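Researcher: Next entry: Inositol oxygenase (Arabidopsis thaliana x Arabidopsis arenosa).
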Amino acid sequence: MTILVEHFVSDSRVDEKKVIEERDDELVLDGGFVVPKSKETDAFDAPDMNFLGHSFRDYENGESERQQGVEEFYRMQHIHQTYDFVKKMRKEYGKLNKMEMSIWECCELLNNVVDESDPDLDEPQIQHLLQTAEAIRRDYPDEDWLHLTALIHDLGKVLLLPEFGGLPQWAVVGDTFPVGCNFDSANIHHKYFKGNPDINNPKYNTKNGVYSEGCGLDNVLMSWGHDDYMYLVAKENGTTLPHAGLFIIRYHSFYPLHKAGAYTHLMNDEDRDDLKWLHVFNKYDLYSKSKVLVDVEQVKPYYISLINKYFPAKLKW
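Model: Predicted structure:
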């Protein structure tokens, strides 16, 4: 699929919240971001390939240096993400004593971050946040909580920055998975779990491990990273986002669940309800990644209004 890059020209006569231009096969939102449009439904149409010309989430094409770096990332992640490591990180970062700042200030901080685990993206993270949010906003205009969830879902990647401890990439990004139970074969590059000490611990290497069937994902420890950190930040700072929003934030990288259907034995009824929204979100999170940039200043007022609605002015991080 070919995506045409358009240079957006601001026009004060056009309401910020409305689509400013439509064509037969694409549509341009108020931030200048081109959204592929389905010919059948007039909704978001997931493209077949990323901007590099590869299939999305292609972890088997090892020809490029970038792909090899992604595989090395997962080798390190699978070895070091243990049950004890996750408990240690949750205890340390659960203190929320690194910084005080607003949600938008954190969005701007994220300009300094590039996710090395992602084979589909090499733009600053704030562009991915806005591309995802704008695409969802177009198709779900009345679900403003979902727009904001899309904007903030990756803010936990600030853990990569020196101000937050400068954690290694394997402790911040990449697919997530439960610890304290068997590592399901649905996990990307599963072979590298052989180096994880938990795999030889009978307490952790069974299907349920330290959990019970149907216990609910809120009671399951996930591999540590930006998902769980942002979930803790939002929850402990008293966000009024619905539970589905928090579910999306904490589990949006849990691809073994929402892509492969693994670990469903740990879910409860609330998880199954929230998973429906995560499936909606995931299409936009994955397929809206593009070289077409959003005009940040153009869309900023709308997202500031949502931040003020669902979060305090300053948060502890």
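Model: Note for the record: Residues 1-28, 46-57 have pLDDT under 50 and may be disordered.
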